[in-house]
Sequence to fold (274 residues):
Amino acid sequence: MKHILSIFLMAMFLAGCTAHVNNVQYEKHWEAAGVQKATSSVVNFKKLDGPLITVAVYQFNDLTGQRKPGQIAHLSSAVTQGAAAYLIETLKEVGDGTWFQVVERTGIDHLIKERQIIRQTRELNKDQDILKPLLFAGVLIEGAIVGYDSNLESGGAGARMLGIGANTQYTRDTVTVSIRLVSVSSGEVLLTSTTTKTIISVKTQADVFRWMDAGTEPLEAEIGTALNEPVNVATRLAIELAVCNLIEKGEQKNLWAYKEEDNKQILKSDGRHH
Fold:
């Protein structure tokens, strides 16, 4: 029994070693993909020097046409259909809420219906209070999920000795989002930003096959684990990075400016302060 337990523990040890190697591969493939990582969180991003920018988001569609593999009739989309919610939340949170004032447009029909109900109720009650008009946006942020490439890269490694083996396999997918800032007054596309996020799936497995009791009893054991990065999380991170990149491009084109305290922090960190 002790012999059996020792063999099984050895297999688990190999699986753990393989998982550690796999984590190293994860980081290497992340860097090899050329995917940028945000230098700071969305909330701690640089703050706007000026009043909030009123912006409207109408839709953020999935243009990939990709479906989840293995699903019945292939009806489930491979990427989230709620990316607009991620975009709105990012716009509200970026720079600790100092950048954008987002007006409701994705559910504009519901909003208009509620306002009609308010007007009718006030008319019946002879209420003279005037319902304030809706805020209008100076700019629109349009965008879409423009790419989802699955099995862009796959591979693995393994080893076996004396009936004890371990192996690891990985696949790499990518999701790409694109957003643009559009002037409502002129229709001009002021800024664009496209970002890509890598999605890594990892499978680690170890197994044992030995003959026990003088070759009369076979011993088989397997252990394994799989780690799949959620596509929704990857999409959200790509959107957050796209918004931060859009802001940085706007600052470079003098569409807006960062708060002076943020500029001082940048100069100080770069060693350029006097």
Observations:
- Residues 18-39, 266-274 have pLDDT under 50 and may be disordered.
- Residues 2-270 form a domain with the Rossmann fold fold (CATH 3.40.50.10610).
- The longest helix spans residues 2-32.
